[in-house]
């Protein structure tokens, strides 16, 4: 293998030397401290951008100076019907410290609506086929006052399976049916409040996905769309984004949508956990102490207690941009800011890509990162955090650190259990799974009732999670799970296992050759490799 | 034999379904149980004194029913249905419509309608498999649109209930065995069929289908469902 020149395009890229400190990796609900071979490239997230000093003023300014439409106040009149849709608990991750940005925006919006005599207002959580948020989560999201004023009659979760609550508003020229929440469609004005955590979020994905039903969603949540997305974090080269845009354009034609989109910085950890934001070579004694303390405490706690603790630590995100108005110009402005925060210039692909898998994903807030979600984090999100070309060479080796416990949340992920234990042992072919089994799961009355009346992900959701890893699966030659606590979970996922990182690297070298280029993606916080 | 009636909405036959959804009734689709029906009959005896005595006997019997049910559904049935001894067939028939309107209908779980509607839309035959008395479930069969049902039947001599049930008594393993025979006779795939129940005593019935689901389950069934990775639905 030809060694990459160690020319750094970005300060967030460092190379391991003989005197470098060991690196911290997420290992599910624990941490690993690992020494990597000299020459290993480590890519860190960019430092958090400075938050806006007065978020309320920035939001008001956006509402009063929107892109390509009249200011919000000029669109309001007494007696009109308004629906405000907000992102669900999958954004941002982890939950942000209160007040949540949604609360801040809603307080301003509701005050403005009230001042203009608008009292027919509903707030809908645009959860699509995600699980419905619990009462406690809903309250935390919007604050006590809004919650007590609106919940439950005028503040509720979207229900994609409500036969009376969904209406078809059109069909794209590609034959994709567009079926959207009836209340939103019948409103004089739909205001969408978005929090953009990664570039895949926002834009036409907000209304067209957040408020749609299964039929509309399956038009783009399918293996071919994911295979043809290079990557889905790069909207310009994402087939997923193209299909969402087609659907979203119809939404914008039929409904009067006023889009509010925000970008936040990547200050994911603070206080006792802020060492996770740093390069280990720059650790102070206090940072080392904090890390050792956290690692020791977690090692002494049982799994559920660790989970509870980690999920209860909020992120310290700050608003870095807010734009409002028509969907597309708003999204473009936010994407620019988002990439400014996340994009790290990287030169050259690697043979072996290493990353720790954290305890959280968009689909397991306050729950377990089950094996399917480990898969979506590795082959989906981790693989897709690039622009230009993948960080890993075609047929390269991905090493992840995760215990891969065979553990599922019965309340949140019931259909995942059947998918993992019944379908994956039969086939891992995404096309075959979609063709043979997706409809059966989607229409399973038990799963539908658990989605509608409980807090379960939709019956079809595990399929989407499998498709989500499809371009990673097609690109990556081998996946090795370092530290897997059992053999059967990696085997069902089609992966290999190793007891330690050293063993995983040795196994990878037997596949790539003796002198591979190794890259460690040091996240979270989130980073997107801007490949040269 | 146990009551088996084609309810006659014809949907199941017309679509020739290859699978079915089997439902338990008490505690599953409705929040009431057998004791509520017995209590209703006891309250509505001919004459105030008789009503009071029967009602008190029912009330006093509740702890015994609970203990018997905890021990064995078969023992429970033997004790419980004796309380119907002496009731006339005509009177039971007469009271069933009122029982449905006043007791059973208000207690149908809200999610039951959605569950059955979704299940019908998949073309599954809708079958009620209950340990309740056939008279008491007839109006419900029509109301919820079941295709078939099986329920327990009281033995009558000269139009008067003896307090015994005609075999086979629908409970626990008998329900499962009835489902197996029924599926074979009707050409239904049990692997593609669904089953819904709330009680641990119906574990055999859950075990014979490909898609078992615990509905508002008791503590023992909840634990079992979690162990078996079965869905747990809350219809209330």
Please render the helix and strand layout as text.
The complex is a heterodimer of chains A (532) and B (236).
Chain A: E1 13-15, E2 23-27, E3 30-34, E4 41-43, H1 55-64, E5 81-87, H2 101-115, E6 120-126, H3 135-142, H4 144-150, E7 155-157, E8 166-171, E9 177-181, H5 182-185, E10 189-196, H6 205-210, H7 214-217, H8 223-227, H9 239-254, E11 257-264, H10 285-300, H11 303-311, E12 319-325, H12 327-342, E13 343-346, E14 350-356, H13 371-384, E15 386-387, E16 392-401, H14 414-423, H15 430-442, H16 445-453, H17 461-468, H18 470-475, E17 478-482, H19 488-493, E18 496-498, H20 501-512, E19 518-521, E20 528-531
Chain B: E1 3-6, H1 11-15, E2 20-23, H2 34-43, H3 48-71, H4 73-80, H5 89-104, H6 110-121, E3 125-133, H7 134-144, E4 148-152, E5 154-157, E6 160-165, H8 173-186, E7 194-197, H9 203-207, E8 211-215, H10 219-228, E9 232-233
Parallel strand pairs in B: 2-3, 2-7, 3-4, 7-8, 8-9
Antiparallel strand pairs in B: 1-4, 5-6
Helix pairs in contact in B: 2-3, 2-5, 3-4, 5-7
Compact overview of the structure:
The complex is a heterodimer of chains A (532) and B (236). With 532 residues, chain A is of the alpha/beta class. Chain A has helices spanning 55-64, 101-115, 135-142, 144-150, 182-185, 205-210, 214-217, 223-227, 239-254, 285-300, 303-311, 327-342, 371-384, 414-423, 430-442, 445-453, 461-468, 470-475, 488-493, 501-512, and strands spanning 13-15, 23-27, 30-34, 41-43, 81-87, 120-126, 155-157, 166-171, 177-181, 189-196, 257-264, 319-325, 343-346, 350-356, 386-387, 392-401, 478-482, 496-498, 518-521, 528-531.
């Amino acid at each position: 293998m030809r060694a990459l020149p160690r020319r750094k395009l970005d300060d967030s890229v460092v190379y391991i030397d003989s005197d470098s400190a060991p690196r911290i990796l997420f290992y599910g609900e624990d941490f690993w401290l690992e020494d990597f071979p000299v020459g290993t490239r480590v890519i860190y997230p960019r430092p958090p951008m400075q938050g806006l000093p007065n978020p309320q003023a920035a939001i008001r300014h956006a509402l009063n100076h929107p892109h390509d439409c009249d200011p919000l106040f000029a669109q309001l009149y007494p007696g009109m019907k308004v629906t405000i849709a907000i992102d669900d608990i999958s954004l941002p991750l982890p939950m942000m410290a209160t007040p949540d940005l949604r609360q801040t925006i809603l307080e301003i919006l509701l005050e403005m609506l009230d001042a203009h005599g608008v009292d027919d207002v509903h707030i809908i959580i645009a959860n699509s086929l995600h699980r419905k948020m619990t009462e406690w989560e809903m309250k935390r999201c919007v604050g006590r006052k809004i919650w007590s004023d609106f919940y439950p009659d005028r503040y509720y979760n979207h229900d994609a399976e409500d036969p009376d609550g969904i209406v078809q508003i059109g069909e794209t020229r590609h034959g994709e049916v567009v079926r959207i929440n009836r209340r939103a469609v019948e409103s004089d004005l739909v205001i969408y409040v978005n929090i953009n955590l990664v570039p895949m979020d926002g834009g036409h994905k907000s209304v067209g996905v957040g408020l749609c039903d299964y039929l509309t969603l399956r038009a783009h949540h399918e293996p071919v769309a994911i295979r043809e997305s290079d990557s889905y974090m790069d909207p310009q080269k994402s087939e997923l984004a193209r299909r969402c845009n087609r659907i979203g354009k119809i939404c914008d034609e039929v409904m009067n949508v006023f889009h509010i989109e925000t970008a936040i910085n990547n200050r994911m950890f603070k206080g006792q956990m802020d060492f996770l934001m740093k390069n280990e070579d720059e650790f102070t004694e206090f940072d080392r102490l904090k890390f050792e303390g956290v690692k020791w405490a977690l090692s002494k706690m049982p799994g559920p207690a660790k989970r509870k603790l980690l999920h209860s630590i909020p992120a310290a995100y700050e608003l870095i941009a807010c734009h409002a108005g028509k969907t597309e110009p708003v999204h473009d402005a936010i994407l620019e800011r988002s990439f400014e925060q996340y994009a790290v210039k990287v030169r050259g692909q690697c043979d072996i890509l290493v990353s720790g898998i954290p305890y959280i994903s968009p689909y397991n807030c306050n729950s377990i990162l089950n094996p399917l979600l480990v898969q979506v984090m590795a082959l989906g999100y981790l693989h897709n955090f690039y622009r230009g070309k993948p960080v890993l060479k075609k047929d390269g080796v991905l090493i992840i650190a995760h215990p891969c416990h065979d553990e599922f949340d019965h309340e949140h992920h019931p259909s995942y259990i059947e998918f993992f234990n019944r379908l994956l042992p039969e086939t891992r072919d995404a096309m075959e799974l979609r063709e043979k089994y997706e409809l059966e799961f989607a229409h399973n009355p038990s799963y539908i009732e658990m989605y509608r009346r409980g807090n379960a992900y939709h019956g079809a959701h595990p399929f989407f999670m499998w498709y989500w890893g499809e371009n990673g699966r097609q690109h990556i030659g081998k996946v090795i799970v370092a530290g897997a606590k059992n053999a059967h979970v990696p085997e069902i996922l089609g992966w290999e296992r190793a007891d330690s990182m050293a063993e995983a690297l040795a196994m990878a070298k037997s596949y790539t050759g003796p002198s591979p280029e190794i890259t460690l993606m040091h996240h979270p916080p989130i980073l997107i490799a801007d490949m040269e | 034999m146990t009551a088996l009636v084609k309810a006659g909405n014809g949907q199941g036959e017309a679509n020739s379904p290859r699978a079915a959804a089997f439902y338990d009734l008490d505690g599953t689709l409705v929040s009431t149980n057998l004791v509520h029906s017995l209590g209703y009959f006891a309250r509505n005896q001919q004459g105030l004194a008789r009503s009071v005595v029967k009602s008190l006997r029912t009330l006093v019997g509740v702890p015994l029913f609970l203990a018997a049910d905890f021990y064995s559904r078969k023992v429970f049935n033997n004790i419980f249905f004796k309380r119907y001894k002496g009731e006339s067939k005509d009177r039971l028939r007469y009271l069933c419509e009122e029982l449905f309107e006043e007791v059973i209908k208000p207690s149908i779980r809200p999610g039951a309608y959605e569950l059955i509607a979704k299940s019908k839309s998949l073309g599954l035959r809708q079958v009620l498999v209950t340990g309740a008395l056939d008279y008491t479930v007839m109006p419900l069969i029509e109301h919820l649109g079941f295709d078939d049902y099986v329920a327990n039947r009281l033995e009558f001599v000269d139009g008067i209930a003896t307090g015994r049930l005609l075999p086979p008594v629908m409970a626990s393993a008998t329900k499962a065995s009835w489902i197996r025979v029924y599926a074979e006779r009707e050409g239904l795939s049990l692997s593609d069929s669904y089953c819904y129940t709330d009680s641990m005593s119906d574990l055999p019935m859950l075990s014979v289908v490909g898609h078992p689901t615990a509905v508002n389950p008791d503590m023992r069934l909840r634990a079992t469902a979690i162990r078996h990775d079965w869905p747990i639905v809350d219809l209330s």
